[in-house]
Amino acid sequence: MIGSDIICAGILSFSAEVNLEDTRSYGLYRTLEIVIVKIVQVFVVKLSGIFVKWKKNANNILEIKLILPLLLCQVFSIFLVYDIFMTAYQTNDKLSISDILSILALMYMNLIIFWYFDKINASYEYKRQKEFAEIKLDFQKDYYSLLEEHQRETESLWHDMKKHISSITELYENSFKPESERYIKDLNGKINAVPKILRTDDSIINSLIMDELRKAKKESIDVRLDVNLSNTMKIDPIDLCVILGNTLENAIDACCVLQDEAKRFIDLK
Fold it and tell me: What is the pLDDT of residues 26-35, one digit of tens each?
């Protein structure tokens, strides 16, 4: 606050050729400086708030887009206040009621502009959070559906496991080695066909990757997973889903072009 007071006094002294002592004593120039300082302080406080939010969350797109118009509003307001004071000073060296009301109106409009800015930003953030919640709910439904499918196939496999082991043992004891090897290979194929379950701290990422795994499986693409999401990641979850989803889709499309299925694989780390 003291810094803005000093800066505004210096600017006023330089632009209007006013003695710095005049800005420190009671009078027209001191009044002009106080009004300009208050407008600048409002802007600085708001700018500081935006910067703090931006550091915490790099997705404040709306605030970044609106910061320039807000800055211009402050610049124009300061210019108008300065013009009103200079006009009053050059005419009768005092402010009229009309001048005072004009200055108060400018300050009021600046406050209203910032108030509406906060309201618009809050509305935007609410809408964004609502859309994110809906997307998260859809992903969670798909994820739980995949979990149920995995559970059914796993239970079916374990239910028949004793029969499979008994059949393999019988083939092996009767020296049917080729048949036993073929049986083991078929059984191994059934085990590998059970959908892979990805468990991270983010259910949306779990569902997204598992959905892409299901698509890759249909195209006979081997997917190797080594996923470890850090809780300190600053990227927005929606942006992460878009990036990851597009990357996996492009990888699957690229694998589908390969004629040799043995070369079709995706290594996700």
Answer: 455 555 556 6
208 in the same domain as 103: no
Domain boundary (131, 153, 174) is at 131
Residue 221: CB atoms within 10 A of its CB come to 21
Domain residues for the domain of 75 are 2-131
Dihedral (C-alpha) 134, 139, 143, 145: value to the nearest 10 degrees? Answer: 70
Closest CA to 23 of 84, 79, 82: 82
* Claim: this prediction has a pTM higher than 0.90: no
228 phi/psi in degrees, rounded to 5: -140, 100
222 beta partners: 265
Cα-based angle 151, 154, 160 (whole degrees, multiple of 5):
140
**CA-CA distance, 29 to 17, in Å (whole number)?**
11
d(C-alpha 118, C-alpha 127), whole Å:
14
